[in-house]
Amino acid sequence: MITSTTMDKLPAKDTDISKTQLILYLIPIIGFFPSLWTLYQRQGSRQQVTASRLSITLAFIWMLGYLLLTTGAATDFLTLRLLILNSFLTSGYFLVSVWLIFRVIQGKSSRLPGFSNLAERLWHKY
What we know:
Largest sheet: none
Order of helices and strands: HHHHH
Oligomer: single chain
Helix content: over 70%
Structural class: mainly alpha
């Protein structure tokens, strides 16, 4: 027999699983792969799809910036400055990801102004 206390616990477990998955998606670099898989399978809640899109967008922006700055630093022109910018970009990517993870743990939205809109436009068909 299912009591009301048992039914009250069921949604909490689903939310814990959802929070765990959202945290997994937002882990820098590593979260890219489960995010891509979620979009590829076209499964998951709206919140999971939104976090997946944001995670993939942030990873692509970081990778593109990283490659461009590293390539520019290899040309012996402004090498040190480009490598410092590269480290700021990487640190920023990791700090934003950690900040988003803390927001998910607190139960707040994992949206970023500008980036979330860009992610929706880039990956809207998924």
